[in-house]
Amino acid sequence: MTSNLDPDARNSYRLITLAARLVQRRQDDALAHLGLTRAAVIALEGLAPGPLNQEQLADAIRVQSQTLGRILTRLEAAGHITRTRQATDRRQLKVELTEAGRTALESARHAEINAYPDDPSIGWKVLQDELTKFVSALPANRHPEVLPFVAPDHRTRRPHTPKTGGRRGPGEELAQEPQSDAQPARAVDPERKD
Prior knowledge:
194 residues; 6% strand; transcription regulation; DNA-binding
């Protein structure tokens, strides 16, 4: 990025940040009555096509397996998933949606959709295309884990890269849940309340 950034670009960055925070708050509010967080919904989405082990699910939704473990523990306690030991490798757990989990996911999808503005003048496809270009234009030297969210059905495995210095990668921020039991969360930074 250049230091003499066009004022329109600077204002666009600010608008992207503001829009993200507003959408996150609306999603949090929309999901709260379901007892779900955005992080939980992302995990449920990752399991919708079929069962995975925890590491495969973490790869699919771009988080570390340990981070995902806390989310899965809450989902299992709520009856939304089951975790069973794999017969071939007892160290691995097969994670699978329950019928209650499928119902919760469908309710969450409707709740999130209803949280978005219902304005026919918004060019959603244009917005998506422009944001995709924006994300793609980020400097090549960015952290390799900084990727746009990949829909769970694009299950490409990525090489495991250990984190250093206790820092989370962006995907982990996506799936990190708040520490309280109240559980309203977020999409980009689950613990951040602006």
